[in-house]
Model the fold of this input.
Amino acid sequence: MGPVEAALPGTLAVFSTRRGGVSRPPWDEMNASYSVGDDPEAVAENRRRLFGGLGVDPDGVASCG
Done:
C-alpha cells in the first residue's frame, strides 16, 4: 500500500504507459485526457481499456496530467 492509498482508504493510485491505446498522433496511443484536443471517441476507448483492465468504473476516476 502506498501513501495515497493509506491516506485515502478505497483509493487506487496508478501510473500507466501509453501502450495499447487507439489515439492517433500527436497523442498516440493511450491518451486518457479529454482536455488536450484528442478525438473524444478515442479517449473514451482508451479509458475503457485502461480502467477496464484495472476493474475500475471510468466515471469514478480522477486524473491529472
Q: What stands out?
A: Helices lie at 3-7, 40-54. Residues 18-58 form one domain.
